[in-house]
Design brief:
Elements: H1 6-20, H2 29-58
């Protein structure tokens, strides 16, 4: 599965600004980095839970 990277999100943001107007730039780069990592963490947590459930059900 491919996740959006920070440059991907900034690119999309800039294209939306081009089309609709508004301010360019990122207010909080650390928050953007955190947002980009969250789906990866959620999926790995979900995968580990599924593994544990499968293991429990097999015993």
């Amino acid at each position: 599965m491919r996740h959006l990277s920070e440059p991907d999100i900034v690119y999309i943001h800039d294209r939306i600004i081009d089309a609709t107007g508004g301010d360019y730039g990122i207010r909080d780069k650390k928050l953007l980095a955190s947002i980009c990592e969250r789906p990866k963490t959620a999926l790995s947590t979900l995968a580990s839970r599924v593994f544990v459930i499968q293991y429990i059900m097999q015993t």
